[in-house]
Write a structure and sequence with these properties.
The protein is mainly alpha-helical. It contains 15 helices and eight strands.
Length: 376
């Protein structure tokens, strides 16, 4: 039955079915619409209880699913590659050199449950035709998988796509290739060229160039990831104890890292010019003037330009992280210590640098054999 309580302008309903009482508001003050609402509600209850039917999950387009993922995770640190993937999946890619948007293959923006394995296979094929490496393609597949899992937890229909099988069938193993790290002469040349670019016509360009130099020094000496350095806060730094409390969002852990003399000098310099309201160490890196991430882009450009003038090839900011790890291993520092310094969640990742370690065991074996042969 339906009735209008004294303290409400809307009709409410109440009925019993299979020993259970159902009640609530119809959301309308019209008796006619309230009666229709009750009739529809009774039918839904009958389907669920008597026929055992369940509600069909809601549907969502791919663009809506991606937007929902970013919205729900806006208070967490999302990998920067996900932002790139979200644009690329719809046929647009930013050129690293010119920063202009380029057209690439993109998926159709339809309800996500309509996607099939063949759609993802075509995406893989097109990305390879465009010259993308396995690692780049893997990032897109991982991002899609993460988005699908997220909206599924929200009750939306998702496609039954076996991403693991697609990776296996297409041999999409991340090929790390040869480990690139800077030699000491290369490091000296790079820092010299970065120091020469500090003069600029405007303050923003000068800020980006200073950031590039300071970024390089800190990556070389503490070996963190670029994103970790971008999100470093002054509250994470203890200048007296010469210690940095670094949060690693990628692996969700923290590391207490000691400052080298060079890092202490960089932070002292930045602290002297710090604005009172400034909370981030590299505030200019997240500037949003004239486009998202402009500060980061100009910082990268200053770094690439310095590399070119120094005659250094195949070098990026991440190369400096490899350089840090390689120097430690070559100096005989244990892989366990290096794992902590880099913030690797698994020692398996750190073993990539194992071949650089001094071969003490084999040197000792050769020495013993030489002694035996000389004594014979």
């Amino acid at each position: 039955m339906i009735r209008k309580p004294k303290n409400s302008t809307n009709f409410h309903f109440r009925f019993n079915y299979m020993g259970k009482t159902y009640s609530g508001s119809t959301g309308t003050s019209s008796r006619h619409l309230a009666t229709q609402y009750l009739s529809k509600y009774r039918d839904e209850v009958y389907k669920k209880v008597a026929l055992g039917e369940v509600d069909e999950p809601d549907r969502m387009k791919l663009s809506e699913a991606i937007a929902q993922y970013f919205k729900d995770n806006r208070h967490t640190t999302i990998p920067t590659t996900y932002t790139t993937c979200s644009t690329k999946l719809f046929g647009k890619k930013r050129c690293n050199r010119t920063h202009k948007m380029l057209r690439v293959y993109g998926l159709r923006d339809e309800s996500i449950e309509t996607y099939k394995d063949k759609d993802i296979q075509k995406l893989i094929n097109e990305r390879r035709n465009e010259g993308n490496k396995n690692t780049t393609i893997l990032y897109e597949l991982v991002f899609l998988s993460v988005v699908f899992k997220h909206v599924k937890r929200l009750g939306y229909q998702v496609p039954d796509i076996d991403f693991d099988e697609l990776k296996k069938a297409n041999k999409l193993n991340a090929n790390r290739g040869r480990l690139r790290f800077l030699s000491m002469p290369e490091e000296k040349k790079l820092l010299i060229e970065l120091s020469r670019t500090l003069d600029a016509d405007n303050e923003f360009t000068k800020l980006c160039r200073v950031n590039a130099l300071h970024f390089a020094v800190m990556l070389l000496d503490i070996g963190c990831r670029m994103g970790e350095l971008q999100n470093l806060k002054w509250s994470d730094i203890d200048m007296e104890k010469r210690q940095i409390q670094l949060y690693r969002s990628k692996v969700d852990n923290e590391s207490a890292l000691a400052m080298t003399n060079r890092v202490h000098e960089v932070l002292t310099d930045r602290l002297a010019s710090k604005a009172e309201e400034q909370t981030m160490v590299f505030e200019g890196m997240i500037q949003r003037a004239k486009g998202k991430g402009r500060g980061t882009l100009k910082c990268r450009a200053a770094f690439r330009s310095a590399c070119e003038r120094a005659g250094i090839t195949g070098c990026s900011f991440h190369t400096l992280r490899h350089t840090h790890a390689s120097r430690l291993v070559q100096a005989g520092v244990s892989l366990y210590v290096v794992q902590h310094q880099l913030g690797h969640s698994s020692p398996t990742t750190t073993t990539r640098y194992a071949h650089l370690a001094p071969q003490q065991a084999t040197m000792q074996a050769a020495s013993v054999l030489n002694q035996i042969q000389e004594a014979a």
